[in-house]
Every structure is written in C-alpha cells, then in structure tokens.
Amino acid sequence: MKLQTLMPAVATLALLGGCGEAPPAPAPTVEVPVAEADADRVDWSRCRIPDVGVPVPGRLFVVDGGPPPPDAEPGRESIRRVDVRVPGPVALLLTAPDATAWHVRVSPETQLRAIFASGVDSQRITGQGLGRSRLTQSGAFGEPCGRYWLEGGAGPALAELTQEVFGRPHDAIYRMRIGSVIIGGTDPGLDQPVGHGD
Fold first, then answer.
1. Which of 29, 31, 175, 188 stands 20 to 30 A from 74 (CA)?
2. Would you say residue 122 has pLDDT above 50?
3. Number of domains forming the structure of the chain
4. Would residue 5 count as lying in a domain?
C-alpha cells in the first residue's frame, strides 16, 4: 500500500526535474599565473659570501664594468682592473654583462673584507692578498645572482642585492674607463665615483 502511494509521487518528481534547466557544468580549472615578482624572486642564501658576517664593516664600493670594450672578441673574457687605495676595511661589488677576469689590487693600508663579482657571463677574480672572502655568480651557469646589476642604472635591485649580500647600502659606484678603475687616492685626475648610496 505504501509503495503504491509512493510511486506516483516519485514519478511526478522525476517529470518536474526533467522540466527544469540542466545542472550547471562544472567550472573549468583556471591556472593562476605566477606573479612576475615571484618569478624574479632570488634565493639570497645562495648569493651570500661564505664566512662573511653582515653587515660587512667599512666602505662598500660598486664597480660598473659597463659594456664590453669595442675590440672584445665574443666568448673571450674581458680583463678589467680595479685598484683600491682606500685605507681601512673595504668591500667590493663588481658587475659586468660579459665574461670578465677582474684583476684586483689593493694598497697595503686597505683591509679587503669581501668581494662579490656578478655578470651575465662567467666572472673570475684574480689578484694577490685578496683573502678567501669572495664569491662569483654567472647567469650563464644558472646562479641566482648572476646578472649585470647595473643594467638600466642603479635601482631597487642593486639596493636589495647590497642589503642581502653585504647587509648595508653601497657608499659609491665607480664606472670603468678603458678597462680600469682606481678607487681612492689623492690625485684629482683619478676616477671619481659616479653615484653614491641612497
């Protein structure tokens, strides 16, 4: 008896259900694009100079290697010379777009605390009495800080790099002239910084 009473109700519901709109289709899966800021995020732990505490004491100088010399052969290193004649503790950030051998010479009064060389192509640091507190990074080798940090001028990227690697802002930026730069000294004809830290 109960089954006979239930059957017409079920049939009526089935008919009414068929008259309505079809159930909505499942929403398509949408991939959320990765924000550009996330894509450019740097793993700073791989960019820090081993055995160097931050903030690095003394003065921090940035050397802009600039474009390759006009007579540079593709695939060969450019030799860039950096003379440091500043007494007391000093740290260097060297950056260039092309493969570079940075030849660094320091005065007896200079206490070199750290050197960081970075570029699009391979970077090398050479010189006497430079200590072991140094790091090179190259974009060609997939290293996270391997880039030319002054492309487009000194900006937020350079400020972030100096803060993360050296624990402080830079004091001055020197631009290469004819493959060499002199930091410090008393001769007014020597290189002068082209920019200061913020």
1. 175
2. yes
3. 1
4. no
